[in-house]
Design goal:
Blueprint: H1 17-23, H2 30-39, E1 46-47, H3 48-57, H4 64-76, E2 81-84, E3 89-92, E4 98-103, E5 109-113, H5 118-128, E6 139-142, H6 145-148
Parallel strand pairs: 4-6
Antiparallel strand pairs: 1-3, 2-3, 4-5
Bound molecules: zinc ion (2 copies).
One zinc ion binds at residues 103, 105-106, 108, 143-144, 146-147.
């Protein structure tokens, strides 16, 4: 006791996927831990099929129904969020609430920080009286830079 292992300093700042799962009352299965890791990257939003492919590349045995249920369970407790884009449902797990810009052609989803669109949400309230949820997500459809070329 008392001596800190090298590399441990500062590691407490970010909760591990296991901590996050247990904090939400979910069992920290290896599938769920890996899915959280995968989706935690900025701008990463994957469909259930894409998550299955990633798990398979890791050498895991993948049951599509289990992956789908894991994703829905993570979304239900707020550890992941859903983007119902054109065609297919995608999941992300970025920590900060954000809006989304989705490409209708390639399906690429990008995060938009809330504060960058504060002007837009203010204007929505002016026009409609509706105050968009603080953590609420707006979805913008269009063509991304590579598809528009
Ligand atoms: Zn997102
Ligand atoms: Zn595109």
């Amino acid at each position: 006791m008392g001596s800190q292992l090298p590399g441990q300093a500062g590691a407490t700042a970010t909760p591990t996927p296991s901590d996050m799962l247990r904090g939400c009352g979910l069992r920290a299965t290896s599938n769920r831990r890996y899915i959280l890791d995968l989706l935690g990257e900025r701008d990463v939003h994957l469909s259930s099929t894409e998550v299955q492919e990633a798990l398979r590349r890791m050498g895991g045995r993948v049951d599509p129904a289990t992956v789908y249920r894991s994703l829905e369970a993570l979304a239900a407790v707020g550890l992941a969020h859903v983007v119902d884009g054109p065609g297919v449902r995608r999941y992300g797990a970025g920590a900060e609430p954000h809006h989304h810009a989705i490409c209708c052609r390639c399906g690429r989803v990008q995060d938009l920080p809330l504060h960058d669109l504060a002007e837009v949400t203010r204007r929505i309230e002016e026009l409609t009286g509706l105050r968009p949820d603080a953590g609420g997500s707006m979805l913008f459809h269009g063509l991304c830079a590579s598809c528009a070329d």
